[in-house]
Amino acid sequence: MFACPAVPPSPPPRIDRPRYEVNVHVDSDLKEVSGDLTVRFTPNRPTQRLVFRLWPNGPLQEREGTRLDVGDATAGGHTLHAARPDPTTLVLRVQLRAGETIAVHLPWRLRVPLDARDRVSRFAAGVRLGSFFPILAWDPRRGWVTDPPAKILGESSTTPASDFDVRVDGPSGMEALVSGTRVGTDHWHAHGVRDVAVAVGRFSVFTAIARAPRPVTVVVGVARSAQVEGPNVLRMAVRALERLSRLYGAYPWKTYTVVVPPDLRSVGIEYPTLTFIGASPILRVIVDHETAHQWFYSLVGNDQARDPWLDEALATWGQLQLGSGLPGSIATSPSSEFQHVGSPMSYWNTRQVAYFREVYGGGVVALASLGQARRVNCALHHYAARNAYGIAQPGDLLDALNRIIPGAERRLRRFGIRR
Ligand SMILES: [Zn+2]
User: Fold this and answer.
1) How far is the centre of ligand 1, averaged over its atoms, from the C-alpha of 407 (Å)?
2) What value does the CA radius of gyration of the chain take, rounded to a whole number of Å?
3) 322 belongs to a structural domain
4) What is the pLDDT of residues 151-199, one digit of tens each?
């Protein structure tokens, strides 16, 4: 009989985490979003620069017509010297000692294309906005993270847990759904999250309380033009949150919002405390997968360009614990087909189909090869607790697996998984 060792309490978010104030104005024709942000940033080591990532300028989104422009960045009344080494990177010149705080103001403007496949898109009577404003790419363990953007559908963002104070002002008659907790008309707070997402549009909204195990307000917003039963989605989201919290530890935030735009089809996109879910026949699988990302990506972050498997394999594993199966073509494949699970996005850039098959499916095959699911779940619970609010590396997961399943690291090597 296997008993999982007691899981220690998880650490709170770092005291020196970035604090953002973000203003978002959605134009009445929904084609443009303008805004500005002020961020208070305190590095834990000296640095001569600030690196913001402008993810809407990645190659996939640029082709769809998305563009994020920035204005002059200022700090203490002075304009900071800015460089743009590539379309997704803004570098500001500063001089900061470890522990010294700078407050930077940065205006920005975003072009929103119609019916895009990716994170920024305009649909009938609404917009969805993910990875849409300039964001600091700081890892307290490694410093600035300057990975290139993915060339296929997939994230490459790495950001520290931060606090966000967000105001969203949209066209009259439209509603905003935002990561975090609503604290006033058009005003939200999100604590200890590594990003925030926003949807503005005409939604049917349904709410319930989940016990995860603390009470969590679950909000489902279904775009009026999406053919989906909101109460069904609400039940799925509550069930996923409650069951995953029993496996991997308490859901630490007070809200969880699921937005169903009309145009996502069989895709989901995860953000901290808010996910976009496609109106699809496999909607439940998507809800389970994206909700599992609340533990693997949202609570425990990772470098999504260097180690995409670290959140995708674990979210797929978590999804399978809720009852959905792997596609037969993966479940019946010999495990020798999956030798590159641990590869970076730069490897997958020319292999979109193999990326999903091997990182998501092969990652699960690799974990299943370790034996009983309850042992893997125990290790993942310890991993989530120890690395909460941090940016994990493969070694952190392997350490957790090795403690519960001796030899796990050695057995995962044939899948291309290494620290
Ligand atoms: Zn995923």
Assistant:
1) 27
2) 20
3) yes
4) 988 888 999 999 999 999 999 999 999 999 999 999 999 999 999 999 9
